[in-house]
Specification:
By secondary structure, the protein is mainly alpha-helical. It has 10 helices and no strands. The chain has helices spanning about 1-110, 115-120, 125-130, 150-170, 170-185, 190-205, 210-220, 230-240, 245-260, 265-280.
Length: about 280
Amino acid sequence: MKNKALKAFKAFLLMLPLCFAEVAWSLAEVESRSDRSPQQNWSNQASEGEQNTSLSTLQKIEYLQREMMELRGKLEEQGYQLQQVQEQNKKLYMDLDKRLRDSPTAAKAAGTSSTAQSEQGLDLNAASRFVSEEPDPGLKTSTINAATMPANAVNDEKAYQTAYRLLQNRDFDGAVKAFNVMLEQSPQGKYAPNAHYWLGEIHLTKGNLEKAAEDFNVVYRQYPQHPKAADSLLKLGYVEYKKGQWKRSKELLNQVKSQYPGTTSAQLADSRLQRMQQEGHI
């Protein structure tokens, strides 16, 4: 019995180093893993962080690229619109310039006798050809000058010439100011209807339809016998046309034809009515 116990104890002693070795190896493995884990974890976290940062940067770049494309599109659209506005303004100014060049003929057709005025000696150059009132027939050519004219008439004449000269030189803003100053100083003067008419033309050309209508209405309603009354009524029809008020435009244009038959204004009114019919507005 003792021999068996002794043999078992010897066997236990023999196995004990192996157990210690196994435990030591396990502890070493655990220590090794514990030493490596923080580094590996940090490396993995760093890698994930770099990936997230790269993804975020790419997303920002794509967003900025989209923004740039949208801005470029808006710039191109605005550039096109600006070009259209410039072309439209150019056409409007050319149209006004043509009316200025043709105005002596139009004034003659409307009943203004520029020849009679020049024969009477009233030298008002281009601007004077649109004045409806004739100089006093009792005054001779040699006697009509600044000395024989009333001071206020001389001032009105000079103010009108100054404003109209600005208009001829295409200084539309300057002409508007000059005409308005003249009207403030002499609202019922000899040249008032002409000033209102040209103010209306400028406003119509620049697209200020309400202001244009105001000035044309002054000429037509307050000076119905003036040579520019027919043209003013015609332009009122044009204003309503530009506003898209086809019915009102038709009424005004027909009114031109009935009130001023056989005139250039009546012919122009008829042409615009035909155009409106072709466009399907009436």
